Amino acid sequence: MTATTKTPPSQDSRTAPTSTTTSKVSALLADRRLPVLVTAALFLAMYIAGLGRYQNYGFNEPQVFLNLFIDNGYLLVAAVGATFVILSGGIDLSVGSVIGFTTMFTAWMVERQGLPILLVIPMALAVGAFGGFLMGYVIQNFEIQPFIVTLAGLFLFRGLCLVISKESIAIGDETVSSLAQTQAQLGIGFLSIGAIVALVVLAVAFYVLHYTRFGRRVYAIGGNEQSAMLMGLPQGGTKIAVYTVSGFCSALAGLLFTLYIQSGDPLHATGMELDAIAAVVIGGTLLTGGSGYVLGTLFGVLVLGLIKSIIQFEGTLSSWWTKIATGVLLCAFILIQRAMTARKQT
Amino acid sequence: MTTPSAATTATTSRWRALTHHHLFWPVAVLVALLLVNVPFTPDFFSIRMTDGHLYGSLVSIVLFGSPLILVAVGMTLVIATGGIDLSVGAVVAITGALTCSYISDQADQSALAGVFLAMGIGLVAAVVCGLWNGFLVARMGIQPIIATLIIMVAGRGVAQLITDGQIITINSEPYKLIGGGYWLTLPFSIFVVAVVVAVTVLLTRRTALGLLVESVGGNAEASRLVGIRSRRIKIMVYVFCALCAGIAGLMISSNTSAADGNNAGLWIELDAILAVVIGGTSLLGGRFSIGGTVIGALVIQTLTTTIYTIGVPTQTNLVFKAAVVIVVCLLQSPKFRAKVFGARFGSKPGATGGGTSPAAPAKTVTTPAEAAPKMEVS
Fold it and tell me: Each residue of A4-63: pLDDT tens digit?
C-alpha cells in the first residue's frame, strides 16, 4: 500500500461536500484503499473468530496460518494473473482450463514421455504464455470481446486436456515428489515451495504494477482505453501483454497445483477462474478496470482460503457452504465497490 | 465448408440479398454440419416410427437441444439489453433440485397436484433468482457479468444444500413427460420449446416490447430520457431469462429423473452465450434475433451429435467447439473480414446486420500486418 501515490490520481478531483461529517464519509468511501482495508479487516476478524472458536483444536498454531499459503498458493498465482487482466478492463475465463491443462501436460511429459521435470517446467510455462498471447492477439487485433475469446480458450484447453488423456495420470517421479515435499523452515512453521513461489510472484506483480511503466499502462487502459490510446500509450501491445501474463500465471499456477496434488487430471481446477475472479473482486479491484491493488488480491485469496479452513475445523459443515459463503462475500464486496464508484461520479 | 467464394463472385442482387440475410450464415453452418453426417450415417435424415413415436437423428438433435434452446432464448433478450447472464446454469441446478426434492418427499410421486406444485416451487425460485439479478443490474447499476457471477458461484452451493449433496432420484410418470416423454408422436419437450419460442417471438416482434429491449440495449440512458422505463425492462429480461433457465432445469431433471446440484446444467451458460453469438446477436446489445439463437443452439447440438456419429473421439468435442467459436467470432468481426477478405468485403454490413450498430465500426485498415499501436479514432 506504499504505492498509493503511484496510481492514477482521482482523490483530488472530488467535489468538496458541504458539511464536515459527509466530507469525512465521502473521503473514506472515495479512498481507493478502502476495499483492501475492508478485506484485510474481514480476514483479521475471521481469523480472530476462528481463534476463539477452535482454540482447543489447534487453530492458534502458526502453521494453520502458513497452511493458508501452502493450500492456496496456486490460487494466489492464478489470481495475480487475473488481477492484471481485470485491471486492464478485460476478463480471462481460461484460467481454470489452463491450470488443468498444465497439470495434464506436466504429468504426461514426466510420466509417459520420461522427460525431466526441470525441462518440462519451462515448456509448460511457454505453452501457457503462448496461449495467453494468442488470446490477447485475437482480442486486440480483431476486436472480439475478451469474454468470448477466453471462453474459446476455456473450451480449447479443457479439450486438449482430454485429448492428452481421459484418465488422470499419477506422478511418481522422484524429483517431483522431493520438490513437493521440500519444506522451508521458518522457526514458527514451514512453507512449501509452492507457497514461496506464490509469494515471489506476488512481490514481482506488486513491483511491476506499481513501479514500472508497464504497470501504469495497465492502469491507464483499464481506466479509459480511449484516453490511453489518444495519449499515445501502446495500448495494443499492453493488452496483449496482459493476457500473456495471465496465461503465464495460469500455467505457473498449474505447475504449483501439480506439485500440490502430484497428478494430472483432465478435470483438475474446473471453474477455478471463478475463484480467481472472486478473489480479485473481494480484494477490492474494480471489475471495470483501472483501480485496485494486487495486495488486495492476496487478502482475497486468504479470505477464501480461511473460509475453507474454518469449514474444515467446523467439521459438520459441508463443502458446499464454501460456495455459498464465497457468493455472499462476493456480493457484499461488489456492493461496497458500487457504493464507492457511485460516490466518485457525483 | 460452404462456399465463401461463391458468395463473393455472385453478382445477382437476389443472391446478395440472400447472403446478407442475418440468418444466412447460421443456417449455412447448420446445413453444412448436418450434411457432414451423411457420409458417415447414410440414413441420417430418415425418421422412422416406432411404438407410435418418431425416432431419428433430427428428432434427437431437437430433443437433446431443447434445454439449450430455452436457455439461449432467454439469454438472447438479456444480451439484447447489453447484459449477460452467467447464472443460468446455477438456476437450472436450483430449479431441478427444488422440484425433485419436493417430488421425492411425496407419498405418491405421480400425483398430478404434487408434480404441478413442485414445478411451481422450482419456477418461483428461478424467478426469484432473476429478480435478484435484475435488481443488482438495473437498480444497483452493477455490471451484468459480475452481478450474475454471484448466483453462478453461490447457486450451485444452494442447489447442493437443497439436495444435501446427494443426487436425488425420483420416479414420477407425469414429471418424466416434460423432458423424456412423447406427445403426438414427438418428444414433449419440443412442444414446450415451440411454445416458449412462439410466445417470445410474438411478444417481441408483434408488440413494441422487442423494440424497447433493443432500445435499452442501444443506449439505456437515452431510452430512459425518451420515456422508456429501461430499469423495468432490464429487470423483466433477467426474470424472463431465469424463467427460461428454470423450465430448462425442469426438462433436464425430468429427462434424467434426477437432480444433481453439481452437474445439472454445467456450462450451459457458456453454450447458451455461444448459441446467441452464432445466431448473429451482437454481445454489445441493441439488436437480437430469436430465430438466429434457435439455429445457433441447434448448431451446437448438431456439432455435438456429429462428433459422436463420425467417430471422432468424444474427448475432442471441446476442441471442436473452441474452433467453431473462434471461426464464427472471427467471421463476425469486421476487422477480421477487412484483413482477410479485403476492405471492401469487410465494410459491408455483416451477419449481425451491424451497419448501424456500434458493434460494427467497419473501418478500413491501413496497415494490416502491424500489430503495434493504431491511431484509429472513430
Answer: 444 444 444 444 445 667 677 777 666 777 888 888 988 998 899 888 888 778 888 888
B321: nearest CB among A144, A155, A232: A155
A182 vs A171, A176, A178, A191, CA distance in Å? 16, 10, 6, 9
- How far separated are the first and last CA of chain B, in Å rounded? 35
- Express each pLDDT in B88-139 by its tens digit: 999 999 999 999 999 888 878 778 888 899 999 999 999 999 999 999 999 8
- C-alpha cell, A149: 475469446
Task: Tell me the chain A residues in contact with residue B332 when contact means C-beta distances shorter than 8 Å.
Answer: 144
Let me know if B345 is exposed, middle or buried by CB neighbors in 10 A (0-12, 13-18, 19+). Answer: middle
Find cell 517446467 and name the residue. Answer: A121
For residue A181, pLDDT over 90 is answered with no
Give the range among A129-138, A141-150, B35-44, B282-291 with minimum mean pLDDT: B35-44
- Residue written as grid cell 475492508: A38
- Alpha carbons A255 and B366: distance in angstroms, whole number: 42
User: Which residue of chain B comes nearest to A322, CA vs CA?
Assistant: B157
pTM (2 decimals)?
A: 0.81
Cβ atoms of residues B228 and B244 within 8 Å:
no
Q: Where are the alpha helices (DSSP H) in A143-234?
A: 146-164, 174-181, 193-211, 213-223, 225-230
Is the CB of residue B89 less than 8 Å from the CB of residue B260? Answer: no
The one-letter amino acid code at B374 reads K
B162: three-class secondary structure by DSSP? helix
Q: At residue A298, does pLDDT exceed 50?
A: yes
Contact A282, A76 (CB under 8 A): no
Q: Which residue has the cell 412442444?
A: B191
Residue A179 φ/ψ, nearest 5 degrees:
-60, -45
Point out the least confidently predicted range of B118-127, B141-150, B221-230, B340-349.
Answer: B340-349
B95 and B125 Cβ atoms separated by less than 8 Å: yes
- The continuous run of DSSP H or E covering B212 comes out as helix B209-218
Q: Angle formed by the axes of helices B334-341 and A117-142, to 10°?
A: 90
Cross-strand bridge partners of residue B259: B168
* Chain B residues touching residue A237 (CB < 8 angstroms): 371-373
CA dihedral B351, B352, B354, B357 (to 10 degrees): -170
Determine, for residues B330 and A142 on separate chains, whether the beta-carbon distance falls below 8 Å. yes
Q: For residue A336, how many C-alpha atoms fall within 13 Å in the half-sphere facing its CB?
A: 23
Report how far residue B203's alpha carbon sits from residue B208's, in angstroms, rounded to the nearest whole number. 8
**C-alpha–C-alpha distance, residues B235 and A186, integer Å:** 54
Question: Could you tell me if A239 and A140 are in contact, meaning their C-beta atoms sit under 8 angstroms apart?
Answer: yes
In chain A, whose CA is at the least distance from the CA of B133? A331
Alpha-carbon distance A305 to A65, whole Å? Answer: 10
- Separation of first and last alpha carbons in chain A: 26
Judging contacts by C-beta atoms under 8 Å, the chain B residues touching residue A274 are 149, 152-153
All three cell numbers of B278, joined, read 452464432
Strands (E), B177-333: 182-183, 186-187, 258-260
| DSSP state letter for A110 | I
Of A151, A158, A323, the CB nearest to B154: A323
- Preferred mutation among B271, B315, B357, B378 to probe A, highest tally of A CBs within 10 A: B315
Cβ atoms of B241 and B85 within 8 Å: the answer is: yes
Q: Which of B156, B334, B339 sits opposite A323 (nearest CB)?
A: B156
Secondary structure (H, E, C), A118-168: HHHHHHHHHHHHHHHHHHHHHHHHHCCCHHHHHHHHHHHHHHHHHHHCCCC
